[in-house]
Amino acid sequence: MNIWNELYNEAIKVQNDRTISPFIVAGGVAAAILTKKGNIYVGVCIDTASTLGMCAERNAIANMITNGESQIDKVVAVMEDGSVGSPCGACREYMMQLDKDSGEIEILTELDGFKTVKLKELIPDWWGRDRFLKNEK
User: Fold this and answer.
1) Rounded CA gap, 100 and 133, in Å?
2) How far apart (Å, rounded) are the C-alpha atoms in residues 61 and 95?
3) Where are the domains of the chain?
4) Where are the beta strands (DSSP E) in the chain?
5) What is the pLDDT of residues 30-89, one digit of tens each?
6) Is the Cβ–Cβ distance between 77 and 57 less than 8 Å?
7) Is-contact 96 102, C-beta < 8 A?
8) Which CATH fold would you assign to the domain 3-136?
9) What would the pLDDT profile of 115-135 be if each residue is shown by its tens digit?
10) How far apart are CA 32 and CA 43, in angstroms?
């Protein structure tokens, strides 16, 4: 099976739009990430009345970090209608701060034909690049 299909299917498994309370809904969007070590982590969006929610991508990243990893290879976000979409600006920034090579993260933007884009294309001239370079010395 194609890795993009596998990631898409893993995200679909957890995508379950549901009401948690009168203030919280979850699962409208789901994400799956593939790490550099070859592991897959998933997450769902959690939307709250007070805007303290979490995107599906950051939820998946939290699962990855909880399990001792911090380097992402690929990301798939599945929207409510089953299409795939690009991470929001906050998720893009969060991913960039994980690792000096995060700009190389591949993001699925179209399921048909498996069209992808690298994170560095979505967030060019990233402000934090110099800080990673200083830490390498």
Assistant:
1) 8
2) 8
3) 3-136
4) 18-21, 24-35, 40-48, 72-78, 106-110, 115-118
5) 999 999 999 999 999 999 999 889 999 999 999 999 999 999 999 999 999 999 999 999
6) yes
7) yes
8) Cytidine Deaminase; domain 2 (3.40.140)
9) 999 999 999 999 998 888 887
10) 7
Q: Name residue 72's amino acid.
A: I
Rounded to the nearest 10 degrees, the angle between the axes of helix 56-66 and helix 89-96 is 20
Token output for 130: 């110099």
How many C-beta neighbours within 10 Å does residue 118 have? 13
Q: Contact at 8 Å (CB) between 57 and 102?
A: no
Q: Alpha carbon 134 to chain centroid distance?
A: 27
Two structure tokens written together for 58: 């950051």
What tokens does 76 get?
A: 């798939």
In this structure, the dihedral spanned by the alpha carbons of residues 113, 63, 101 and 120, taken in order and rounded to 10 degrees, is 50
Cα dihedral 50→24→75→78 (10° resolution): -120
What is the pTM (predicted TM-score) of this model?
A: 0.93
C-beta neighbour count of 127 within 10 angstroms: 9
Least Cα distance to 44 among 65, 23, 25 occurs for: 25
H/E stretch holding 94: helix 89-96
